[in-house]
Design goal:
The structure is a homodimer. Chain A is an alpha+beta fold. The structure holds manganese (II) ion (MN) (4 copies). One manganese (II) ion (MN) binds next to helix 4 of chain A. Chain A binds a DNA duplex through helix 3.
Chain lengths: ~250, ~250
DNA sequence: TTTAAGATTTAGTCATGCCTAAACTTATAG
DNA sequence: CTATAAGTTTAGGCATGACTAAATCTTAAA
């Protein structure tokens, strides 16, 4: 049931592939491999190849595909991916703010509905919310135009010990992890500092105004992204300086 | 993407077939022919046969199907049809009351989304609306249990001339017709009386408190259902006494 | 440079749902 | 009691989007 918006019609599957390519390729538009897509989408690599060939072959192609070397989105493909991402995040914000969903419940519902709401409903929801900038997990909501400001976010596990940071966003994929974060007071906007010398299976952190510290599992820490803290320390003092910029905020 | 609720999983197509059977068979559960379904769903009769055979064959069957003699819903099929109908009408009420949709815009959006909202979202929407009894067009919303009170509604075109009536519901299928009704002040709850002796291509009616009368096209009149008016006249004084009870309120 | 492991693509299937054309029932008029 | 029209089902296909198994590239180690 395609007739949903204006542009080239897309199916739910196509939307999912485009979103996955945007997420895995990052805003930097890097090439994405079939295998990575297969894993992310939960389908076999052979299925991915088939779909990529179709997306690359259609009238206005959604991807540029080079055999054995992965794909990247075309302008049209990126536009549609950002459109779906906007739907997802607006829906999460709406479900959370207007329909009493907790932040660990919004993702699944939004993931399903994002493919089916019309541009009109998107607009009405955005208007009702006052054009919000972020979803309940701190992720930035693309504008109608597709504009999506980049933010120098870094995974907490890559952040330097002892340097004050503020949580910018958290992964919305694991409801149990989100509930655990709620219990610990971890949410976007909260200050956090990693205690020096704790970078093994778990790390100790000081959260918000509290004087005690708690131990975070690597699992939990890997779902938290941060930006420089209020005491304005330099932002590139990263723990593992190499390949530290691959955080990219877990797209959806 | 089935995993939406509890019961036997259904696809969007299956939902549409079940809804169509409920609508065409009426609450009286009459058998529905392949042809009627084909026309209603906009597919070929051969496609209908194929689907009916599948629906009748599955583990807990959704329909009882007798070759060459039409189908009727089983309890499971009726339950799912009413569930989807509840989604549709709740969504219409929600879009209308909370998201500034006009009553001629709600149908298409609801028709698409009804298949994809979770039971949780259904509940939250119902709660937010205070468990409404009708949608913006006056149609009754089935309860969560599937209960749907019957109402002795009759098409305006079958109602006796000169007998006061009240609009109970209007068809939501034609946006242009709905806008025309708005212009004329025709909506659920409004009193209406057909002037005697006007039962041809169009009929003159007196609307609400107004003293003048207007001419309604058969098109418009066929989309309006009424119940006995405030001055309590008998309800079975129907114009065309035979086959007058087939009104059944245009389900979705 | 060679080669094997790993990644990727091709080939051949399958399930859904729809379509057309042809065969077949049922119901109705003579 | 038939013949014919109308309604319905069967047969054979097509498009999507996934899967398995087998073939083919790439790449990196030897
Ligand atoms: Mn999705
Ligand atoms: Mn989110
Ligand atoms: Mn539908
Ligand atoms: Mn309605």
């Amino acid at each position: 049931m395609p007739p949903r918006n204006h542009g080239p019609y897309t199916t739910e599957s196509v939307d999912d592939y485009l979103k996955a390519i945007l997420e895995l390729g990052g805003l930097a538009e890097e090439r994405v491999t079939s295998n990575a897509l297969a894993q992310h989408l939960g389908v076999r690599a052979a299925s991915v190849t088939g779909m990529l060939q179709k997306l690359a072959a259609q009238k206005p192609p959604f991807v540029k595909y080079e055999k054995h070397h992965g794909v990247r989105l075309t302008a049209a493909g990126k536009m549609r991916a950002l459109e779906v991402l906007r739907h997802h995040r607006l829906l999460e914000r709406f479900l959370h703010d207007f329909l009493d969903y907790s932040w660990d419940e919004v993702h699944d519902e939004a993931e399903r509905l994002e493919h089916f709401i019309s541009e009109q409903l998107e607009d009405r929801i955005a208007a009702k919310l006052g054009d919000p900038e972020t979803d309940p997990h701190g992720h930035l909501i693309p504008e109608r135009s597709g504009a999506l400001p980049a933010r120098e976010e870094v995974l907490l596990s890559k952040w330097a010990c002892g340097v004050a940071a503020v949580i910018s966003s958290v992964s919305d994929r694991d409801p149990a992890a989100l509930r655990e974060m709620t219990r610990l007071g971890l949410k976007p906007g909260v200050a956090i500092t990693v205690e020096t010398g704790t970078r093994n299976a778990s790390l100790r952190v000081r959260i918000g105004e509290r004087s005690d510290s708690v131990r975070l599992s690597q699992m939990l820490a890997s779902g938290i992204s941060v930006i420089a803290g209020p005491n304005g320390r330099a932002r590139n003092l990263l723990a593992d300086s190499h390949e530290a910029n691959q955080a990219e905020s877990r797209l959806p």
